[in-house]
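One-letter codes give the sequence; each number marks local geometry. A record appears below:


***
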Amino acid sequence: MNILYLAHRIPYPPNKGDKIRSFNEVKYLSQQHNIDLVCLADDPADLQYKVNLEEYCQHVDVIPLNKTIAKIKGLLSLAGGGSISVGYFYQKKMQQAIDQHLKKTSYDAILCFSSTMAEYVFKSSVKDISARLIMDFCDVDSDKWLQYAAEARFPMTQLYRLEQRRLAAYECKIQREFDRTILISAAEAHLFRQFSPDHLDKLSIIPNGVDHEFFTPNYAPPASSLQPTALSLVFTGAMDYHANIDGVIWFCEYIWPELKLRFPDLTFYIVGSHPDPAVRDLAKNDGVIVTGFVEDIREYYALADICVVPLRMARGVQNKVLEAMSMGKAVVATAKANAGIQAEDGKQLLIADDVDIFIDKITALLNDQNKRVALSSAAREFVIEKYDWNRNLQLLEVLLQ
């Protein structure tokens, strides 16, 4: 089968949520099919990874995206009655590359990763597209803007709410016009049905996975690796992402001071690329270390006594939770961070949304190694059973037929 795969970010390296999912889809599909990949790269450093994707794809087109220009185009799209997100990710060079592929190759399926990629199908100069149209929404992008609005001030609240309405309408259009649509969890599907009740027979759920052979408790850090501190908490994620920024700032402001009083030797590692200036400032707190980009995230998971995921805004499945659980680590997370995963509170992880509860649950775990071991063992078993990439992506193969 010939498949044209469109992605709003280059699916490599698989080191953040959307790139992990898109990379594993490409990798899985390439085992049985011919894949042509067209994608955007909003980080110039990512252009070098085209060669890595050529291992899985027949052709790879990576189109640079200038963030400043993209923001202007997004606002112009909003002013014209459209969506910021759709305007932001629409590039004429990408459209030209896609249309050239459509003219040269007879595709059996076009798989779009994220709602904004549908625009390249809608605006294509090739009008007789016979390929099966598959949309992996991943999660409900429009709802993120409501979460942003809840945290913002006027006039940004109005802007974010308008974008939510525009993008939700666009997601409904995709649901009508594509052959099949995909969401990452039952929670996301329930949310989607609330504002898009039609054509639900097209909607399927394909959960994420985790490479549990790579993220394993048996990982042996190199000799030059980090030296363990007395006690360590670890948070991982792209540190230029709003939800992650908000989460670690909240944690450091309201939770960390009390934990540091109770455990003077405790260290909190904030691990992830492109830390926002507000995140870098958190390193001024006693015991807080902001690493920036690291070559192998497993070194920090291995270092952790507990992985914390204090996200107050979250959608879909949090890969940072799956990776930590797969590494056999005790996890304390908010209910929103667990919503797409549905691990059992008290059995496979601990849920905490309130400041005092967060402090008390971390304290209890730090004081009880046996409880940490029991929790981490159950977490590892849970992800192996529920979040295996090959097993979960079998449904994608079915949808392509």
Notes: The CA atoms of residues 40 and 390 lie 26 Å apart. Residues 2-206 form a domain with the Rossmann fold fold (CATH 3.40.50.11720). The mean pLDDT is 95. The chain has two domains: 2-206, 231-386.
